[in-house]
Amino acid sequence: MEVKLASKLGFCFGVERAIEMAERVLARHPEGVYSLGEIIHNRQVVEEFSRKGLKVINDVNQAKGLVLIRSHGEPPEVFEQLRNRGVEIVDATCVLVKRAQQIVTNLAKEGYQVVVVGQVKHPEVKAVLGYADDVICVDKPEDLELLPADGKFGIVCQTTHSLEHFGRMVGLIVARGCREIKVINTLCEEVRRRQAAAVELARQVDVMFVLGGKQSANTRELAHLCQEQGVATYHLEGWEEFSPDMVSGKSVAGVTAGASTPQWIIERFVNNLRRFESR
Ligand code: F3S
User: Fewer Cβ atoms within 10 A, N terminus or C terminus of the chain?
Assistant: First the structure.
């Protein structure tokens, strides 16, 4: 069938950097190193790194030798705990996440009640919340109950959210009432470009495939934006999850992929889909 690709898709520079750093430390330490949490939200990449000796731990107390900090970052107390354990830290926190962390610290110093628009359970948000005291996380209108009345708010956003969502939440905070508000855009431009390209493509095709890990926030956001365009959308981790009924009666398919989806998964999917005869 005819397959069109989004003009921007797949690995972002932050993920590429984390992967390169992991490759380098594994070359230096063939006996294996530790990663605090999965290096990226992509099962296939995590499995490949596991075969190469990257061991995933979820607890600082399991850390020894050398520990890789993934692109989502970690809160300051985790770095301190790791230093206290005497382990070598290789920090692959994305520069844009580091920027958001620094902004949170600065806003708190300037006397703002810091508010992060983001998913409270997402690793990046969990880390960012640690860069000042009493940071409040909101992601849905009902979360605004958590905010003090008439406050002086300094607002940032999870890097992978959409501009529309951030704007909506800021608008609701303003409408609810505040003494002063300072909004700093911490959205990732790499994510925004992928979102814009996905929306543009979704408007031209009969069905959209969004490739990437089910845990990947930016991939889920891409799928959500495509669905909002009214096109049938499938969020798949790879070709193994494809089924013929997804393209039944369709002639043009669009493909995009999250910032943590490797090129080989995209190529394999696109090649197979191009060969597929839809009925
Ligand atoms: Fe960094 Fe944006 Fe990628 S925040 S890890 S460049 S999605």
Answer: C
